[in-house]
Amino acid sequence: MMNVALLKQWRHSLVVTALLAGALSITACQPKQETEPSLEESISEEQAVPMSAEPAEPSDVVVDAPASEVADDTVATVNSGVNQITYLCSPELEVEATYKDTNQVMLATAKGSVTLTKTNEATNPEVFEGATAIDGTAGFVQWRVAHKDRETGVMRTAGADTTNVTTYECKKT
Fold this sequence. Notes:
eight-stranded antiparallel β-barrel; 2 helices; about 20% helix; alpha+beta
């Protein structure tokens, strides 16, 4: 008798298990709609970025040649402390300033050019002066540059009549 009771119990367990397996297989075959990830989920997901094994290209070009070999080359940069900056001034004047080392600047304009010597130890403003006018005649030129990277400048110049001073306000281009 025990065998009959045991078989009935097994039969009942087998039927329940078969029904569960059938239900799972039917729900597994049903198409499910995939949802788009929300903006927050997209932002928080870590993005895989491919990396190259090659080193990055250097952006600084160094010319390893004597200054005499590249003197006529306007593209080459020689590490000698020379820095050229173009300024547009008001009243209308274009000034090409060539800073030589830390103590001199050469100003070139349509009116002429002059080399000035630094007269102060400060860096903001830097003051340069010369004892001739910009056209090389008697007079004076004073050049003051200020701000980081010499962004602005003021040029004061006069001819033989040193009381008649013209002032130009200049900005780096």
